[in-house]
Every structure is written in structure tokens, then in C-alpha cells.
Specification:
By secondary structure, this protein is of the alpha/beta class. It has a domain of about 200 residues: 3-Layer(aba) Sandwich (Rossmann fold), CATH 3.40.50. Helix content is about 40%, strand content about 15%. It has 18 helices and 13 strands. The strands form three sheets. Strands 3-4-12-9-10-11 form a six-stranded mixed beta sheet. A five-stranded parallel beta sheet has the order 8-5-6-7-13, with helices on both faces. It has a two-stranded antiparallel ribbon with strand order 1-2. Helix 2 crosses helix 10, helix 3 crosses helix 4 and helix 5 runs parallel beside helix 6. The structure holds pyridoxal-5'-phosphate. The site of pyridoxal-5'-phosphate (PLP) has 19 residues, from helix 5 and helix 11. Pyridoxal-5'-phosphate binds next to helix 5 and helix 11.
Length: about 425
């Protein structure tokens, strides 16, 4: 299958080329040239998650260099559980946090890392991954790429704006992973990465590529769990699901829209935002205006100018369609705290601040159809926020405990991309 740039000025590529390039030459993001249709009833025979993943992703890798590796990549990447936790019969929480860094980004990062390692094994040149993180991406990318052959990783995070446990996950790796604490915001980090990509000498010399959710190799695997969950729910209730998604850079939501487009039994997709409400404002005014990011309790969603908006605009074509398909709600820090408390009191179930934005929206809308809130991170990652609210210690999952015991190291730099290459 061919992939095209959202800006329409770069040559078409296949999936492997899109994965290696990250961003298209015209500065746009890669999207499928057309969407296949997958009859979800045909997937009912697929029993395991990796099997569903293979079936959903296979059409995107037809005639691709990775076509024959795809099954193996899916089995290696998706080797952890994905429970659908019921709060009530039709109110489900999709626990996306059982991977190595306890956030949903492990799904995309692991798929991408394994795909890239396979691609680089066939090439004789360096590859350097640049990744800007608002908290969880960097940890997931670092974990996924750690010790992969022929690949170096540079992780940038906004100094002092991630939780202690998030920071640990960004800084505990060493070997082929180098971490930078940037004097600035996540938007500064993202800008530095973009500027480095604009520096053709560096791109050439280091073989720069990206692992942010702008990379197609992160996004395609994020189509799989909406499929998996909505399939399961369609079997149980013979109904379509509404997906409620704590969103920042909108990668998860974009993957879910793509899943809906190719045939997953999804009725609606709803974005839950924190105080960074660029998308809510866009829906109201029809004019997209990027903002500076505001620090909130749901820090992995502190994004003022979500990159994947460009993919959604491309998908929907015009604002009227966008407005019909997308709904978004902004949730304040106070509402996040109240929701963590309410969900604990009502269901004895601890949730992270990001997941709380989704639960807030679910509670506000009171839909009777099946709803799935994406639990994007394990609450133990945000112990300093969640524990005082619920007045209880949250046990640390094993995979996270291992990371927290490692040594940290990082470089402190100003928000200028040249420092990454000194
Ligand atoms: C990254 C992240 C989000 C936001 O996801 P996007 O795909 O960027 O919209 C939400 N919650 C957590 C815990 C995250 O790490």
C-alpha cells in the first residue's frame, strides 16, 4: 500500500519508507493513500491479540519490505496483557498500561522499534531516533529501542515537568539511549526536534528519524486495540462502542478513527482533553489556533499544538465533516482530582490523572451504549497525585519496579537543538 503526505507535496512511499523517514519531505505526516475495508466479522476467528494485530495491519504492509516479518513483529511487540476492566456491565476501562513502561505508548513504541531494527539490519548506515516527550513517550521509546542493533536514541524532556517516576523511566537506560533535560516546555522539545529535522546536514550525518506519534510506525499499531476492544464488545452485546480517549498529541484518537474507518464496530470517538483545549476551541470557532501548553496534572497530555490534528484534518477533508465526527471536552485539574476520588469511592478502582479526564467525560455524558475509556497509564506512575486523593498506597507493577531501581543519568541543555549534537 502507498502512503501519502498530508501536505500532498512529497512522493508516495510504502509503509517501511514512511517508518524510516518519520516526517515526509514536505513537512507533512504520512497517511494511507486509501483505507482498506476489514469486515470485523471475519476477525472473530482471531483469538489472541497478536493475531488480531496481524489481521488489522496486514493490508497496510502488502508488497512492503516488512510484509513477511509482520506476524513476527506483532508477536514480539504485543507480548503483554490488555484487560477490559468493567466498572459496570457496559462501562469498560481498557487497561493499556501493562507494557514495560506502564503506559499505552508501549504498544506503538515496541512495534516501531522492532520494525526499525529489522529494516536497519538490511541497511548499512546509522540511524538516530530523536524523540521529544511530554512524559510517557520518551520512556516507552527508550525501553523499546534499548539495545536494538544499529540504532541510537536521543530523548528530550521538559526539565522539571514530568513526574519523578516518569523521569526515572527516561533516564535509566544508558547504552544506545541518551537523555536530555531541556530548559523549556514540551513544545520547545518538539520544536527542537522539528528544527533538527530541518537541518539537512544533520539528517544526513546522523540518519535522523523520529519515534514520536507523528511516525506512522507508532500510529498503525494504535489502530489495533480499538479494533480488539470493539470486537469483543460487539460479540458480548451486539452493539457498537463509543471510545473515550484521554488525548494530547491525538495519536491515540487518530489511530482509533482509522480503526473506525477500516471497519471496527465503533460508533463514536470522543476526545477528553485537560486544560490544553486547542481542539475544543477549534471545534467552536472553526479556526485552528495553536497555543502554548499549560502544565496540568495529566502532564502527558500537556500539548498546545497537537501534531496529529493534521492527520484528522486530512481524514475528514473539511471543517463541517471534522465537526460532525469529532467531539472533545476539556477537563480541569479540579475535575481530574474529583474524578479520581469518585471512581475510587464508587468502584474501588484507582485511575491515573489522564484516565480521569476520560472518566469525567463518561460520567458527564451518561451514555447507555457500551463505552470504553482508555486507561492510558498505570496509576502507580502518578503516585504523588493519586495516593493522597484516595488515601491509599498503589502497589507498583513489577515491570515498573524493575526500572525504578536502575541508576539515572542525563544531560541538561538549553532549548536549542544544536546542543543535542555536541
Ligand atoms: C501520551 C499520553 C496521552 C496522550 O496521547 P496522545 O496519543 O498524544 O493523544 C494520554 N495519556 C498518557 C498517559 C500518555 O502517556
Amino acid at each position: 500500500m502507498d502512503f501519502i503526505s498530508t501536505r500532498g507535496l512529497a512522493p508516495n512511499v510504502n509503509a517501511s519508507e514512511a517508518i524510516l523517514k518519520g516526517l515526509a519531505d514536505d513537512g507533512g505526516l504520512y497517511v494511507p493513500s486509501q483505507f482498506p475495508y476489514i469486515d470485523f466479522k471475519s476477525l472473530r476467528g482471531a483469538t489472541s491479540y497478536p493475531e488480531v494485530a496481524f489481521e488489522v495491519l496486514a493490508p497496510f504492509f502488502v508488497n512492503d519490505e516488512l510484509q513477511n516479518d509482520l506476524a513476527e513483529i506483532c508477536y514480539e511487540a504485543f507480548n503483554f496483557a490488555l484487560p477490559l476492566h468493567p466498572l459496570s456491565e457496559k462501562e469498560l476501562v481498557m487497561e493499556l498500561f501493562w507494557g514495560p513502561t506502564a503506559a499505552f505508548k508501549d504498544f506503538g513504541a515496541r512495534f516501531l522499534a522492532i520494525a526499525m531494527e529489522k529494516l536497519m539490519a538490511k541497511r548499512n548506515r546509522p540511524l538516530t531516533i530523536l524523540v521529544a516527550t511530554s512524559g510517557d513517550t520518551g520512556g516507552a521509546v527508550a525501553a523499546a529501542f534499548h539495545k536494538r542493533e544499529n540504532i541510537n536514541v536521543k530523548v528530550l524532556f521538559p526539565k522539571g515537568r514530568v513526574s519523578a517516576r516518569q523521569e526515572k523511566q527516561l533516564t535509566c537506560w544508558g547504552d544506545n539511549v541518551e537523555t536530555y533535560a531541556v530548559e523549556g516546555s514540551f513544545d520547545d522539545c518538539q520544536r527542537m526536534v522539528k528544527e533538527a529535522f530541518g537541518d539537512s546536514k544533520l539528517v544526513e550525518q546522523y540518519g535522523l528519524s523520529s519515534a514520536n506519534s507523528i511516525n506512522l510506525g507508532r500510529l498503525l499499531p494504535q489502530m489495533v486495540y480499538p479494533f480488539y476492544a470493539s470486537l469483543e464488545i460487539a460479540e458480548r452485546f451486539n452493539q457498537e462502542s463509543t471510545m473515550i480517549i484521554p488525548s494530547g498529541n491525538i495519536g491515540n484518537s487518530c489511530g482509533t478513527y482509522w480503526a473506525k474507518v477500516v471497519g471496527a464496530p465503533i460508533k463514536n470517538v470522543i476526545l477528553a482533553l485537560n486544560a490544553n483545549k486547542t481542539v475544543v476551541d477549534y471545534l467552536e470557532s472553526g479556526v485552528y489556533e495553536k497555543r502554548s501548553s499549560i502544565a496540568t496534572l495529566a502532564n502527558a497530555m500537556d500539548v498546545g499544538d497537537p501534531s496529529n490534528i493534521e492527520r484528522l484534518n486530512h481524514l475528514f477533508g473539511d471543517f463541517e465533516t471534522f465537526k460532525k465526527e469529532v467531539s472533545a471536552y476539556s477537563v480541569s485539574d479540579e475535575e481530574i482530582k474529583q474524578t479520581i476520588e469518585r471512581v475510587w469511592n464508587e468502584y474501588n478502582y484507582p485511575i491515573c490523572p489522564h484516565t480521569a479526564t476520560g472518566e469525567f467525560v463518561r460520567n458527564k455524558l451518561k451514555l447507555t451504549d457500551p463505552t470504553v475509556v482508555y486507561a492510558t497509564a498505570h496509576p502507580a506512575k502518578f503516585d504523588t497525585i493519586v495516593e493522597p486523593i484516595i488515601n491509599k498506597e498503589i502497589p507498583i507493577p513489577d515491570q515498573l519496579a524493575v526500572l525504578l531501581e536502575k541508576e539515572s543519568s542525563y544531560n541538561e541543555i538549553e532549548a536549542d537543538y544544536h546542543h543535542l549534537f555536541e
